[in-house]
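Can't paste images in this forum, so I'm doing it all in text. The chain is below; anyone willing to post the predicted structure tokens underneath?
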Amino acid sequence: MIPISTQQEDLYLKQRRAMVDTQLRRRGIRDERVLEAMLQVPRHEFVLDSYRAQAYEDHPIPIGEDQTVSQPFIVAVCLQALELKETESVLEIGTGSGYQTALLALLARNVYTVERHPSLAHIAEATLGRLGLTNIRLAVGDGSQGWREYSPYDAVLVSAAAPRIPQSLLEQLSGTGRMVIPVGTQHTQELQLIRKRGGEYSAETLEGCRFVPLVGTEGF
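Text version of the structure:
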């Protein structure tokens, strides 16, 4: 559990409770582990100071390098679809500010996360360390290639839109692995849930969405 350190956090806690109740529960998020994680993680710690007043509002927030932290509802949709267990290993493509990484750290045993921008990776690592999350490994690199060293993964969560599902990421799924990834053009995408069973893959569309592009050898 991430501790709430001072009484100054009371306002942010109230805002998180409102976020969970109005943006998530009322819109169909039912996974109690996801809801509890989103209640615990201080989203305001993962945005620039100038955006802290907006930290719990229902929209993406810029974090630098032309990247954003996704709106809470979309984050919750992704996490709920993965159905993570506390014994599982998960790969995240696109660390960003580290907000979603922190949520994954509460839901899974081990989190491996890849970020393309060294500046964002450095800030995220510092924030995650400050919050005492120790089950995370972070690398700077081409996320479209995944991170083979620690594969296979029970789940893969991609936080940037790809023109097609990267073969490298499919290959790094375990035999019963799941992946959530936005697929489409740079302007219009669908959030897809990929399931692997017996060497075969199935796809389900979750939501229409708009993410920043996945840049790399198997991205844009």
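The longest strand covers residues 173-184. The domain at 7-209 is CATH 3.40.50.150 (Rossmann fold).
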